[in-house]
Amino acid sequence: MSEELLNRAFFSNPIPLFVTRLSDGCFLDANPAFCRFTGYGREELIGRSSLELGLWHENTRSRQWLTDTLRDNGSLRGFDARIAVRGGQVRECLFSLELITYAGEAAVLGTFQDITARIRAQAELRKERDFIAAVLDTVDTLVLVLDADGRIVRFNRACEALTGYSFEELRGRYIWDVLLLPEEQAEVKAQFSRLTAGDFPRDFENHWVTRDGDRRLIAWSNTALLTDDGAIEYVVPTGVDITERKKTEARLLSLANYDPLTGLPNRNLFQECLHHALGQARRGGQSLALMFLDLDDFKVVNDTLGHAAGDAMLREAAERLKNCVRDTDTVARLGGDEFTLILEGLRRPEDIVGVAQQILGQLSQPFDVRGHEIYSAGSIGITVFPADGNDMETLLKNADAAMYRAKSHGGGTYEFFTPDLNRRAAERLMLERALRRGIAAGELPVHYQPQMDLRGGRVVGVEALVRWAHPEKGLVLPGEFIPHAERTGLIFALGEQVLRNACSQCQRWRRQGLNELQLAVNVSARQFQRRDFADLVRRVLTETGLPASNLVIEITESVLLGEIETRVTLMQELKDMGVHLSVDDFGTGYSSLVYLKRFPIDSIKLDRQFVQHVCVDVEDLAICRAVAAMGRSLDIRVVAEGVETWEQLAVLAELGCDAAQGFVFSPPMAADAAGPWLHSGQPVARN
Ligand code: C2E
Ligand code: MG
Ligand code: MG
């Protein structure tokens, strides 16, 4: 290349070019582009170094380093340094230097590019990024950035504060692995797997679990950051912790639905419950009872003792009401001293009466209100769906009307809306009163029916069967009053009386020579459920002197169901005393062979239902045969009940039953008739 051409390339080049001496850094030449850029004339530059001129501005690289590197490598590209142009302005430049020989000495040919604008833009960008990060850290909103796979890319300070985790700990972890509730993990994972398909959930709620194991409910709103070709690159969920808000909402909801004084459902919720219960009763073809209750004389308490006393009394009344119903029933306060109850699934009026009586009984107990003993009572109106009305309004109206009738009778009572139910309820009440009085007056004689041994043909025992010597109706059979006694709890007094009378009667017969006579006494499931039943038996045996081994307790199959452990304990206690146990009406209930094995049972009574047709019905015959065989193999005595003919007796003996009882020998007899019968020891003809 000609020198002229080189000169032209140097001097007319729009890119700044300069030549300096390697040894001292003094300018040997510079092109106009360089002079324009720096603001110095060519003459000013030549012979002086950039250090001297102040061009080399606060650069970290020393001249020595530059010289050494150039000597070693021959060139140096892409290093940045600052130039202070004339006037003091500083420019960021990217240099390229080349080692050359200039006029016989080592020199540097240099050029550069002004990158001030680019650097500034980068700094600007960095600043902005820091700014955004700073802003994200100042907001209370939870902000995080997840990549398209669900890994945590950013996590702002609000997130750190809520979770107790630092960003550094979670960076790169899958969101579901570290923060989500186990049962919600799958759902979020699935959401991310659908992201590529463009299925992107915007708003949703889920729970985060903090480092301390706290659960927080968070409402999220998602934004997607897309790549240039529209694929989702990042997901930016922003969220708010709504745990407290939800709690407040629930509290408000409760305020809208519950009476703050008693905590019972208010009118609102009551109507909703009734609506729901009616729908259910309609679908299930069931009945439902609605009760309106008003406290008698509540106004007096309120007026004389003050509102605080009134409030205390209402609270106490609400507690008592709740204790009278099942968990599934509804007790609500309509306002003032008015309460309502919804009793679901009750069929018989006497069940409803039972509840009403229990409530009235509870309310008649004295109230302890701020040191005052207050006596109160309630008036109850009852309507029954569907008999008294098919819809809510009618039922409410009728219950209200019935309640007013109860009030007009002086309070402390209940009234059904329907006269017929009223009458039946009144009858029940009369029966209960009469029975209570009858028990107290000793109007319940025990009759005795002999049991015959089918092998030896001797009398082996008697079954005690209670009767009610009603002053007007005459002798009433147990089927008419035992169920009622069980429902009202009178069975306990009744049962004790029967046990005591029968034991002392049996002991009297023993003294007259019937030493071996076994006395069977029927016991209701309710009696048998009492923990102190064995104590009662022990006491009665001691009082009457009857040896335990002469007593057989007859229980029904229903006793065997339910809480097995406590039953077994009670049975074992009786067995340990020497008392025998027998299962009555065997085959009619739910007993299974398992029970017979589990429980310490001595005998079973084959029910009359099978005995009745044993001669004509092959199925009944098969059942009797199976029961007899089972008894033999389990070493349990089998007693046939309700045997009426010699023919039946023959078949049962043939099948291997141990004993029998029934009209074929004798109906139940009063004690004074039974005595001679037993003494005569009526023989049984064996076929
Ligand atoms: P149960 O224990 O199965 O008593 C047998 C019932 O069958 C008795 O009826 C008896 O009179 C009747 N019966 C006996 N032989 C024959 C017969 O050949 N043919 C027919 N058709 N019937 C016969 P009762 O005395 O009316 O007693 C009914 C039930 O009342 C008893 O059934 C028992 O479960 C219960 N019961 C009786 N007394 C008491 C008691 O003191 N306490 C308890 N909890 N329940 C009792
Ligand atoms: Mg019996
Ligand atoms: Mg029976």
What does this protein structure show overall?
The strands form six sheets. The chain has an eight-stranded mixed β-barrel, surrounded by five helices. Strands 2-1-5-4-3 form a five-stranded antiparallel β-sheet. A five-stranded antiparallel β-sheet has the order 7-6-10-9-8. The protein is built from 28 helices and 28 strands. A hairpin with a 4-residue loop joins strand 6 (142-147) and strand 7. With 687 residues, the protein is α+β, with helices and mostly antiparallel strands. It starts with a helix and ends in a 7-residue tail after the last helix. The relative contact order is 0.04. Bound molecules: ligand C2E and magnesium ion (2 copies). Residues 463, 522, 554, 584 line the site of one magnesium ion. Ligand C2E is lined by residues 449, 465-466, 477-479, 482, 495, 498, 522-524, 554, 584-585, 608, 641-644, 662-663, 668.
